[in-house]
Amino acid sequence: MNKKNILTVFFILFLITSCSSTSNYYKKNPEITVTPVEPDQAMVVYEGKLLNIFFHPVVARPEIAFKGSEKDHFLEWFVTADEFRKILHEMYMDNYVLINIDEFYDVTYTNGVKRVTVKKLLVPEGKKPFVLSIDDLNYYKVYAK
Questions:
Q1: Taking the domains of the chain in order of start, what are their residue ranges?
Q2: Residue 50: helix, strand or coil by DSSP?
Q3: What does the angle CA 100 – CA 102 – CA 104 come to, to the nearest 5 degrees?
Q4: In contact, 73 and 57? CB cutoff 8 Å
Q5: In 3D, which of 127, 101, 104 has the Cα closest to residue 117?
Q6: Which residues touch 84 (CB under 8 Å, ≥6 apart)?
Q7: 42 close to 124: Cβ distance less than 8 angstroms
Q8: How are beta strands 128-134 and 51-55 bridged, if at all?
Q9: What is the pTM of this model?
């Protein structure tokens, strides 16, 4: 398995674990509905700006993270799993759709020269694409107090 596939698998596991109990979240918040994009929905070329939203690792246990000497740092830079779900829901309600960044550009090598070209990005009609990034996907030793 190459590095790209390992990172993809890790990211998927991260999302699953940080957003576990999603079904409970929607049971507790019945005003929030989720309608997946239909497989036969019309796809159109998107020509606007591509939004990149990034997060630091999602806090699974705020009762621990938001206490102690690093409290202010966590409050400033991190979101809880519940906040993460709410942000993604708001983006969904605003017609954003998560895309794989590899759908946006192509990388080719000719005689050892790297060339990046923009692809035509297809999205479901009426949707706006965004890329989700995770910054500092680790916990520094200083946080393990």
A1: 3-143
A2: coil
A3: 90
A4: no
A5: 104
A6: 18, 19, 55, 58
A7: yes
A8: parallel
A9: 0.63
As given in the structure block, the two tokens for residue 106 are 């192509």
What tokens were used for 26?
């929607």
d(CA 85, CA 19): 7
Look up residue 144 and give its two tokens: 């393990």
Q: Which amino acid is at 95?
A: N
User: What separation in angstroms does the CA of 76 have from each of 72, 80, 91, 117?
Assistant: 6, 12, 21, 36
Number of residues assigned to the chain? 145
Q: Which of 28, 144, 4 is nearest to 85 (CA)?
A: 28
The per-residue pLDDT for range 13-42, each reduced to its tens digit, is: 444 444 444 444 445 555 555 555 566 789
* Spatial distance between the Cα atoms of 100 and 111, rounded to a whole number of angstroms: 28
The conformation of residue 59, written as its DSSP 8-state character, comes to B
For strand 43-46 and strand 105-110, is the pairing parallel, antiparallel, or unpaired? Answer: unpaired
User: At 51, phi and psi to the nearest 5?
Assistant: -80, 135
